[in-house]
Design goal:
The protein is an all-beta fold and 59 residues long. It has one domain (4-57). Helix content is 0%, strand content 66%. Strands 1, 2, 3, 4, 5 and 6 form a six-stranded antiparallel beta sheet that branches. β2 (10-12) and β3 form a beta hairpin. 5% of the residues are buried.
Amino acid sequence: MQARRSARSEGGGGSYSGKITDPDAKKTYNGTISVSGDTVTLKGCVMKVVCESQKWSRQ
């Protein structure tokens, strides 16, 4: 999934929320991004019921 932020994010302290757009599916989801050390976690949800997350770590 290729994601991009489509609205202003809110939050701070390593955790941010906003809208995430999946251009391949042409859909926008509520999402959060959390940063902890060398790891970034992206979580997107549909109606806060069906969620998917991905983690990226710096090597």
